[in-house]
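We emphasize that the prediction below concerns an isolated chain of 185 residues; any contacts that depend on oligomerization or on bound cofactors are therefore not represented. The input was used exactly as deposited, without trimming of termini.
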Amino acid sequence: MIALVGTSSVGKTAVAEQLQMLLPEPYLVVGIDHFLNMFPHHWAGHPRGPGPGMWYEDTVDPDGSPRARIRYGAAGERLLAGMRAAVKAMLDCGNQVILDEMPLDESIIPSWRRELVGYQVSWVHLTAPLQVVEEREARRTRGQHFGNARGHFGIAAEEEYDLRLDVAAASPQDAAAKIAAALSA
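Result of the prediction step, given as a token string:
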């Protein structure tokens, strides 16, 4: 498994798509967004948040910039546990996986690591300056929630990774090529 970790809009999904084209074996992309979108709308957003599901906690920083954090209750916690179990089941069936993970809080990566003890995982942290990810967030056409990049910026940055890659000036193709080269080394 290749775990791509980083804040919203850093480019994980685009890099994962490029990796799929470069790697000699088929890899399935599993992303946090796939699982977040499983919640019915009225349990996933503001109408019922805060509560048992998942919701955005929207605030504004002193400089006027929007900040959004995805929060979750008991049903959201079960969804995240189900995501980890689903990925583990995919690996157990012989699939190769690229994980597209935006840590919602500091518990997410340690939970993945506990779940995947004994599995071969390459942990890759994609990063870019906040200004860059906010510019990318503003250009997004799907999955956009202003302030999400800022709200999750830096979460899990202190974790241990096999590769740290600043993608501020790198295209998704270039980033994927660097990851593929590091994996084959």
